[in-house]
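During the reporting period the student researcher (J.K.) took over the structure-prediction task from the postdoctoral fellow and processed the backlog of single-chain submissions. One of the processed entries is reproduced below for the supervisory committee.
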Amino acid sequence: MKEELKTKDFATLTVAYNDEKVIGGMLKGVEDLHNLVIISTPWRGKHVQFDKTGKIAERLGAEIIYQDFGTEGEERNFGMEYLEKRGFKYVFIIDSDEYYTKENIYKMMKYVKEYSFESYKNRNDKVYWKSWKYYFQHSGCNSCLRSDIRFRSKRDPDTSNYTAFGGIEMHHFTFERTEKEMLEKAETREYEVLTKSWLEKYWINWKPGENYKTFKIVPTTEIPEEILGRYIKSINLLY
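J.K. obtained the following structure tokens:
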């Protein structure tokens, strides 16, 4: 597996802003690949000083680019073009708070090598809610693309030639933060879902047993030891 993971055909692309508490654990799951992390001031929301995201990523071997962009789509397209020119054939699009086991990264790479689609979607996301002890299931989004594919906006690739990975689980920690951290994120990285009013309506006063819109929030009965271990080390800034 180790030899397979070192292939030069694959790279990862992450766009980040003040994600020091999650990026280390994410990168440890893809450390055998070339990792590009682009750090930009917020597309929307206010900029405060940068935290240790870049330093942690660099310490873990990632290539870091600091450059500002007007939209998330522009930032991702810059990264895709950059990695294509570097000779990578496929790019995993992974946010700082999206964790895969190394085994599942290997499975996805093997699947991509066996088929010839332009885009590959992940259909099995566990989105943790307030604590890793609760989650809801999400259908996922584009997680791997041929490097010459570009985005129309955000994570919407300009192609209809795609397939879905089967049996691949992604662990998403986007809502697993303290109230202070969530409010700061809404202020600095506001987007369609994450706003202060959304937090007050759905997240801050949530109680176990309640659902989020059409998503059923349930107790976590199983989480890979690798994922939980990396996450705990990451939020404690141990990378």
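The committee noted the following: Residues 24 and 239 are 6 Å apart (CA to CA).
J.K. will present the remaining backlog at the next meeting.
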